[in-house]
Amino acid sequence: MSKLTETEIAARLPAAKGWERHGDMLTRTWQFPSFRRAIEFVNNVSALAEKSGHYPEIHIQFRDVRLEISTHDVGGLTERDFSLISDLAAIPTDR
Ligand SMILES: C[C@H](O)[C@H](O)[C@H]1CNC2=NC(N)=NC(=O)C2=N1
């Protein structure tokens, strides 16, 4: 999978609502009502990552979960990153 160009990234960012771009990385933080809820979310993320074979960095700090997404193999952002973000939108975060 090849690196997306700046133009291609700019075209995909509006669909990645709530995500921030930091260079070669897309990041988003959620705060859950409890540690247990945070871990449930992480478990859902891990199942999705295994299914797609694309793995976000997962940072857990009590009730806060931050995901960082990048394609390390190519040192940039690829379609796989945006595809993972769109899959992640199906995970409930408000229960
Ligand atoms: C061979 C295999 O597809 C690669 O090692 C994959 C696995 N999952 C990956 N996930 C992420 N986020 N970045 C990668 O570069 C990556 N590489």
TrEMBL record:
One Gene Ontology MF term? 4-alpha-hydroxytetrahydrobiopterin dehydratase activity
Keywords from the UniProt entry: Lyase
What Gene Ontology terms for biological process does this UniProt record contain? tetrahydrobiopterin biosynthetic process
Q: Does the keyword Lyase apply?
A: yes
Asked if Lyase is a keyword of the record, the answer is yes
What EC number(s) has UniProt assigned to this enzyme? 4.2.1.96
The highest taxon in the source lineage is: Bacteria
| Known catalytic reactions | (4aS,6R)-4a-hydroxy-L-erythro-5,6,7,8-tetrahydrobiopterin = (6R)-L-erythro-6,7-dihydrobiopterin + H2O
Q: Which InterPro entries match?
A: PCD_sf, Pterin_deHydtase
- Pfam families in the record, alphabetically? Pterin_4a
Family per record: Belongs to the pterin-4-alpha-carbinolamine dehydratase family.
> Can you name this protein?
4a-hydroxytetrahydrobiopterin dehydratase
